[in-house]
Amino acid sequence: MLDGYGDEGHFVTGWDVDPAGVYSVLSKAGTAAKSMSDTGSAMQGNLEEAASAAGTLTSQYGPYSSTVGLVGSALGQFAQAWGRDLLYIAKRTSKSLDGADQATRCYVAGALEQAANAQREAAKEPKVDLPGEGGGHGGGRPQR
Q1: Distances from the Cα of 125 to the Cα of 88, 90, 91, 104, 115, angstroms
Q2: Inter-axis angle of helices 70-108 and 112-123, to 10 degrees?
Q3: What is the rounded CA–CA span in Å between residue 133 and residue 131?
Q4: What letter would DSSP give residue 125?
Q5: pLDDT (tens digit, 9 = 90+) per residue, 27-54?
Q6: Cβ(118)–Cβ(106) under 8 Å?
Q7: Which parts of the sequence are annotated with region: Disordered (predicted)?
Q8: How do the domains of the chain map onto residue ranges?
C-alpha cells in the first residue's frame, strides 16, 4: 500500500513488490477463479435440471393445472438465496485480480499514484445485480 506524500512533497512508497511473484499468484488465482466459475455454472444447470426432474403438483380439482413440486420449489429458493452471494464472489474476485494486475503494472512503470488509485478502486465493493432485478438493487456485499 502506498503511504502518500512525504514532508517535502516527494511521493513516498511503502510498497516492496515482486512483479514476477504477483503475476505468478495472479495466474494461479485466475485458474482457480475460472474453475470456480465453471462449477457455479454447472451447479446452476444442475439445479434447474433437478428441479424439473423433481416433478410437479397437479390439482385434482378442475381446472387441472400443474405447479412446481415441493422439491423443485425448495431448489429454486436455494438458488435464489445463494445466487447473489455467488455473483458477489465472482465480481469481488475479478475486481481484486484486475486491480492487483493494474496496480502492479503501474508500479513497474513507476506510476506510483496510478498504482495507488488502482489499488483503491479494486478495494471498492462491487455492484451486484441479479438478472431480472432491475436497476438500483445492486450494491455491495450481500446481506443475510
Answers
A1: 9, 12, 9, 20, 18
A2: 170
A3: 6
A4: P
A5: 999 999 999 888 888 888 888 888 878 8
A6: yes
A7: 118-144
A8: 18-123
Grid coordinates given for 140:
455491495
**Cα–Cα dist 77/118, whole Å:** 37
pLDDT in tens, 67-89: 778 888 888 888 888 888 888 89
Q: Are strands 11-13 and 2-5 parallel, antiparallel or unpaired?
A: antiparallel
Classify burial at 49, counting beta carbons within 10 Å of its beta carbon; exposed 0-12, middle 13-18, buried 19 or more.
Answer: exposed
HEC profile of 40-69: HHHHHHHHHHHHHHCCEEECCCCCCCEEEC
CA separation, residue 49 to residues 21, 56, 73, 78 (Å): 42, 13, 12, 14
